[in-house]
Design brief:
NAD+ poly-ADP-ribosyltransferase activity, alpha+beta, 43% helix, Nucleotide-bd_a/b_plait_sf, four-stranded antiparallel beta sheet
């Protein structure tokens, strides 16, 4: 006999969705009694493919022929020999281990690469901390290190891009306002000069004024690097 963990390791991935883990089995309960119980339709059961007991005998992994049987069995209360059994869905422990490996990852946010000020980078980190729930710190490499789950880091990547886009739009609007203000000043100066030139010129000709609009640089594509 083996533990439930070792039993799950030896199982085929296709058997796990068709299996349940039964706990609190009495020492005198035989495998035959378990098979009969979980094959009966009144208990939500179906055809049993295999029964594997753990080393101490108080648990068993039961695999059915059909995955649908697991759903019907979980809806019922189960007793064998008057003892109430605990029935749980069989979970893929191997997948759990993979999830744990990526449970915490880090990402670097470098304000030099993003071409923003240190204070701006800190404000971005504080925003994503509030929205996503990650943690961050300023490290000796002169960049911010963000820590969270893989899903959180992916969400941070989207938010950082969003914040930088918003900042670029604001900068663009401020730049346009500055150009317009300069243009208005130029118009006033040109009007004054034109009036003077008109008074001095016998033909009364006026000069045309051309105003140029600055081109805003594209947003940098690289936001931050992720490491497990």
């Amino acid at each position: 006999m083996a533990s439930d963990r070792s039993i799950l390791k030896t199982m085929n991935s296709g058997d796990i969705p068709r299996s349940i883990v039964v706990s609190n089995i009495s020492p005198w309960t035989k495998e035959e009694a378990i098979v009969i119980h979980f094959q009966q339709r009144k208990h939500g059961g179906g055809d049993v493919s295999s029964v594997k007991f753990t080393e101490d005998g108080d648990k068993a992994v039961i695999t059915f022929e059909e995955a649908e049987t697991v759903e019907t069995v979980l809806k019922e209360e189960h007793k064998i020999g008057g003892v109430l059994l605990r029935v749980d869905r069989c979970l893929d422990k191997r997948k759990t281990v993979i999830d744990q490996i990526f449970s915490q990852v880090t990402a670097r946010l470098d304000h030099f690469e993003l071409d923003i000020q240190l204070q701006e980078a800190k404000q971005i980190c504080e925003k994503i901390k509030m929205e996503v729930g990650v943690s961050f710190e300023y490290c000796s490499d002169k960049c911010f290190v963000i820590c969270g789950t893989l899903n959180q880091i992916n969400e941070c990547h989207v938010l950082v891009k969003k914040y930088l886009n918003e900042a670029e739009n604001i900068s663009s609007e401020l730049s346009k306002l500055s150009v317009e203000a300069k243009a208005q000043t130029t118009d006033v100066e040109v009007s004054a000069e034109t009036r003077g030139a008109t008074e001095a010129s016998p033909t009364g000709e006026k000069s045309d004024v051309i105003i140029a609009t600055p081109i805003v640089e594209n947003l940098k594509k690289r936001l931050f690097s992720v490491t497990a």
